Amino acid sequence: GENVEQHPSTLSVQEGDSAVIKCTYSDSASNYFPWYKQELGKRPQLIIDIRSNVGEKKDQRIAVTLNKTAKHFSLHITETQPEDSAVYFCAASMSGYSTLTFGKGTMLLVSP
Amino acid sequence: NAGVMQNPRHLVRRRGQEARLRCSPMKGHSHVYWYRQLPEEGLKFMVYLQKENIIDESGMPKERFSAEFPKEGPSILRIQQVVRGDSAAYFCASSQEDEQYFGPGTRLTVT
């Protein structure tokens, strides 16, 4: 089955800096890669996703890149703010009603 | 447009009791997924259901755990004879296509 590795497990940055979280996946059949943000005690929230037919997608301060050949994808957050502090999870699946395999999460702490 | 609903939000059970968790998908969504999250860990897939059908239960323990999504009403995850190791947050998600949207979770504590 699919295996998703996520790094780093914790990331501390100063407000205004950029943050990058990286994930690798094992199953070349996976073609849908969402990112979730989870604040303490809250539900995971879908913040951005990418499908294998594109290499990059951007939404304001958040961007995701995908390298299908290397089987890795990354989340980039620019101009970080304290409210970006949360745990971020990457995931992989085959599109079309398929289960998600999650990475173990990255705790991002943005200091004012 | 109401999001994914789960109840109860918190559930305390003694060892050996049954836990019943409910999930109502977003309006228009016919696919439900259950995930378990242990403290400070990621989300682990348990079971995927459509109305009246279990599509994939490969992540669900063979004993004590069962799930259903009837034609009418919410999806239910049932844990019989709970043990302390069942203490976790249980999230359901629903989807119409690729995107899965999560409910607020049920935090199960087994004493």
List keywords for this structure.
heterodimer; A: 112 residues; mainly beta; 6-stranded mixed β-sheet; 5-stranded antiparallel β-sheet; globular; B: 111 residues; 4-stranded antiparallel β-sheet; 0% helix
Written account of the structure:
The complex is a heterodimer of chains A (112) and B (111). Chain A is an all-beta fold. Helices cover 0% and strands 54% of the residues of chain A. Chain A contains no helices and eleven strands. In chain A, the strands form two sheets. In chain A, strands 2, 4, 5, 9, 10 and 11 form a six-stranded mixed beta sheet that branches. Chain A is globular, with a radius of gyration of 13 Å. Chain A starts with a strand and ends with a strand. The model of chain A has no long low-confidence stretch (mean pLDDT 95). Chain B is built from no helices and eleven strands. Chain B is mostly beta strands and 111 residues long. In chain B, strands 2, 4, 5, 6, 9, 10 and 11 form a seven-stranded mixed beta sheet that branches. A four-stranded antiparallel beta sheet of chain B has the order 1-3-8-7, with no helix packed on it. In chain B, strand 4 (31-37) and strand 5 (43-50) form a beta hairpin. The mean pLDDT of chain B is 94. Chain A binds chain B through residues 1, 32, 34, 36, 42-46, 49, 51, 89, 93, 95-97, 99-105, and chain B through 31, 33, 35, 41-45, 48, 55-56, 58-59, 91, 93, 95, 97-105.
Total helix count of chain A? Answer: 0
Distance from first to last alpha carbon of chain B: 37 Å
SS-derived structural category of chain B: mainly beta
The share of residues in helices of chain B is: under 10%
Largest sheet of chain B: 7 strands, mixed
- The biggest beta sheet of chain A, please? 6 strands, mixed
Radius of gyration of chain A: 13 Å
- What would you call the shape of chain B? globular
| Poorly predicted runs of 5 or more residues of chain B | none
